[in-house]
Design a protein that fits this description.
By secondary structure, this protein is α/β, with parallel strands linked by helices. It contains 13 helices and 15 strands. It folds into two domains: about 230 residues, Aspartate Aminotransferase, domain 2 (3-Layer(aba) Sandwich); about 130 residues, Aspartate Aminotransferase, domain 1 (Alpha-Beta Complex). The strands form four sheets. A seven-stranded mixed sheet has the order 1-9-8-5-4-2-3, sandwiched between helices. α5 links the parallel β2 and β3. The longest helix is centred in the N-terminal third of the chain and has 22 residues. The chain binds pyridoxal-5'-phosphate.
Amino acid sequence: MTPVHNVTTSEVSSADPGDGAPTGVPLLDFAREYAQIGPELLSAVEAVFRSQRFVLGPEVASFEEAAARHCGVAEAIGCASGTDALWLAMAAVGVQPGDRVLTTAFSFFATASAILRLGATPVLADIDPRTSNIDPKATGAALEKHPVIRAILPVHLYGQCADWTALSGVAGRCNCLLIEDAAQAFGARWDGTPAGALGAAAAFSFYPTKNLSAAGEAGMVTTASAAIARRVRSLRAHGMEVRYYHEEIGWNSRLDTLQAAVLLVKLRHVDEWNQRRRALAARYGELFTATGVVEPGPYPHHGLVLPWADPRAHHVYHQYVIRVARRDELRTRLTQRGIGSEIYYPLALHQQKALASLGYRAGAFPESERAAREVLALPIFPQLRDDEQERVVTAIRDFLS
Ligand SMILES: Cc1ncc(COP(=O)(O)O)c(C=O)c1O
């Protein structure tokens, strides 16, 4: 079993079976990105060492300004991780211990654990099987069962925004705030509006496998509200606005200057990289369709179901995720051929042992449980070569036909 929630550099480089034939395809290969922008990164990092301003140095403010511009919001506040960004965003909008926060049943664990860390309770809703994002209808039904909800926290899973049009309608009915878990969606848009500018606040992750990534842990909160931004800035620094005068209990979650310097460099490339991801996704679609193993979906039977992009969404394909009924067998076959793949995620949130106390029974969220059995992420990263992509498609076709 993978020891961490996302791919590490060592897993990535072990994709080739090692028998001499170049059949392997890595799920991700950071070395190729480094080959492309290494000198830019090193000179940015060197500048930080020269300045010796490792905590909240000038690169942090520069990154925050540039990222805010990119997301079309007034404020961006760097922090130590995406998990902290969720925590900070919810705390700053006023989620309190004892509150309920409605979120998807199918996401990375931190979406739910950040709610619990605040002393609040996650209320889960099932997903739309076409996008694997929270289903607005299920969200509405959950609101009827739990009328007092402080906030709704949709996740833009795999790089595609949740249906913000429908969710805004649902949130309007309960008068609760929408907060984005945009950890996987830097550069994505819904109906023209960038992820990060949709909700009252948004949380991004720059974990090294993300489509905009740091050289370690990093995250960011965005918001249009000066008051929320001010509170996030205070909370990320021990509840302090004036040095050593603490207004409330915060924590230490500043963005390292070194990480900000790295992110500033990568921000210059992220649009081009996202474009390449979109082109690779379109090409996967063409190649798979030509094999004849594609089924219309959303449920696969003998073949595979391709990811579906809502026409209102600008999907950035942080992950390219297919659905296959015999998913585990296929994955074993791909591994034998040295082709990287990953399951995001093998369990729905209510199936996690750590969340058993939420009290949901097996079968409570059938679409999320089904997704956990069927989803498989294939190699997609800006430097993936066309011939490698063809090898992935051929291996899957051979298995399914
Ligand atoms: C949907 C989602 N939410 C939250 C997080 C947490 O981000 P981080 O790993 O930076 O703490 C992640 C990252 O793995 C994620 O994918």
